[in-house]
Amino acid sequence: MHVTVIGCGYVGLELAGQLLGDGHTVVGVRRSQSGLDAVEAVGARAVAADATDPDSLATLPDTDAVVFAASSGGRGADAARAVYVEGLRNVIREYGARGSPPDRLVYTSSTGVYGDHDGDWVDEETPLDPTTDKTRVLVEAERVAREEAAAVGIDGSVARFAGLYGPDRYRLARYLEGPVTAGYLNMVHRDDAAGAVRFLLDEDLARDEAVLVVDDEPADKWAFADWLADECGVERPEKRTKEERIAAGDLSTAAERRVRTSKRCSNDRLRTLGYEFTHPTYRSGYRAAIDGYRGE
């Protein structure tokens, strides 16, 4: 199988490595030279293109499957729309106009599309309820990935990632130093985020579907912080309720919105499809970070 990864960054590079290990051909698409160098370092072919620049997409190779994993760089809704909606649309139009378009498209979305559920469980059947301009953009992008791709003969799938963690993204200080606000953490290790996409492509599953990509155990933030502190051999951090943290008035608008949003994401669908996690919970996924912190 020939796979082209648009935005071959944090998850995409790991995905490329996994696909290459399975004997597939992989092209990683990045805008910057440093990004292209990183693609070549994992053994994939690097191609320079920018999803927000339609003219640049002529350089994309014909392919069997496209993974759209581009990032807006953590910026606002306008930047997100330019990448996730218009950039994705540009890629679909480019490939749809070719004589041999790809068979599959996987778009990497976020569990942020669910909004707040006051700690209740959500799954693929839960109605989407985005609460910010940016998450509303993500919902629109999901529609583009499925409906507009289908209109040009490409089967679109959506992988809704929970909070990514892994090498360079363990953020130990956030939980060891506190204060830690009550709520739930829905997480997936980078290796499993990539692994789930690889699995969906390899097994030819979830065409025209959305699948939650999250580990087995939504974690209570206070319990997670205490476990992490104990494992690292440091004092347990200060804890605050949501109400206490909001009343303190020291949160940015975005941070306050995150504090107010609580849900538990189910991976039953992904498990039922047959995916086996490398890191089923944070207890396995954080081991490398803990060992590094302790100097082991």
TrEMBL record:
GO terms for cellular component: cytoplasm. GO terms for molecular function: aldehyde dehydrogenase (NAD+) activity. Signal peptide: none annotated. Residues 4-170 form the NAD-dependent epimerase/dehydratase domain. Coiled coil: none annotated. This is NAD(P)H-binding protein. The lineage of its organism: Archaea, Methanobacteriati, Methanobacteriota, Stenosarchaea group, Halobacteria.
